Structures are given as structure tokens and as C-alpha cells.
Amino acid sequence: MTGVPASAAGGSSGAHGARGSGAAADGVAPEVSGSVPAPGSDGTSDARPARGGKIAAAAVNQASVWNVANLLTMLRLVLVPGFVALMLADGGYDPAWRSLAWAAFAIAMITDLFDGHLARTYNLVTDFGKIADPIADKAIMGAALICLSALGDLPWWVTGVILGRELGITLLRFLVIRYGVIPASRGGKLKTLTQGVAVGMYVLALTGWLATLRFWVMAAAVVLTVVTGLDYVRQAIVLRRQGIAERAAALEETEA
What we know:
By secondary structure, this protein is mainly alpha-helical. Helices cover 72% and strands 0% of the residues.
């Protein structure tokens, strides 16, 4: 999520304010009718940016963090401790508390769909959002899985497979970032959706055929988790090989 360029967030008013204070963005002193720039000690004009311009630019950059996409991400982070408290209330087996926990989990999953879309559509991508969004995603999913396993509703190996895959792929992305970015695949998006539905069904106190159905949905989620994880590993290996080959070719061309 998120970085609003100064031209979008501050617009022309921020630029005019900086220039009016005595410095233009390109370092040229503003023209004032009937006046000549005061020379410095070496005979050249003093074109140093005015302090007010820097303060105005900093204010615009700070304000850009507080956009709707980032606010939705922050909401997900706040929902994590609330979800855990609701999930474990009254021993963790009260249907009413579990329903409220499901509502918190559902809100977190829905906001996950919207914040990324809003950030890309309205150019709200910021450094904060790039870091906070994946943390919020994994925090709410990890909290749900750990709570379910701690309550005995979900085997620990399922939680281990899902969380291990998510953390492993995140680390893998950082390791190969120098060679390029591994794009999100359709399989990865389907995996995320299936995981959300499966975990949501386990959070609810379901019985009968719905309890049987959630087992198969979770089984599908685990299969997609493993398959897409292996596909990301394959993409990372290919990306690394291509990056090394391109660097070697560029080095040979430079030496030639």
C-alpha cells in the first residue's frame, strides 16, 4: 500500500508554497519583479532552498501515510489481539464468542482484499504499506491457526505446514529480490481464498455435515499451500539463474 506522490497528495499548492518561500523545486531562485538576487560572498547568487519549503515537503510525505489503504491495514493489525481475545473467551468453546471471533476474522480478510486494490488503483502505495500489509495478513492467519490448534480443533501439523510455507516464501522473496520480483500467481490467490474460507469455517462452531465440509475445504487449502509453495521455489530458482546469467553477460560485454 502505499506512497502518495507529492504531486498527488500535496499537489500544486505545496509546490507554490515552496516557491513562494524563496526556492523552486529545480533549485532556481524565483523571479521577483524589480529585484535582483543578492550575491553571496563569492559573487554568485544564493539559491539555497528555503527552510519552509523543506518543512512543507516533509509534512506532505508524512500525511501521505494516513490514506485509506493504510488505515485498512492498521485495522487488520488492531483486529489481531481482539480476535485472539474473542477466540479464547470462556474457554474457547462458547458458540457466541466464536461467532464474534469469526466476524473479526471475516472483517480482516475482507479488508485484505480492499486495501491492496485501493493502493494500486489510486496510487496509494507507500513503504509503510509494503511492510505492514504482509505482516497484517500473516498475523491474523497465524493467530487463527495457532488458536485453533491450541484448542484442539486443528492438528498442529496443519498449522505448521501453512505457517512454514508462508514464512518460507516470504524469506525466499527477500533472498532473490536482487534478481527480480516473484509475482503473485493465480494459484497463490486461490490458496489465500481457500485458506481464509477453511479457517473461517473452523473458527465457527459447526456441527453435522458442515463440520465434514470444512475438513475437505481445509484439505484443499493444505494441498494448494504445498503446491503453490513448490511453484514459488521453482520460480525463485529460475529467476536466480536468469539473473546470474544476465550479470555474467553484462560483465563480459563490459570487459570486451
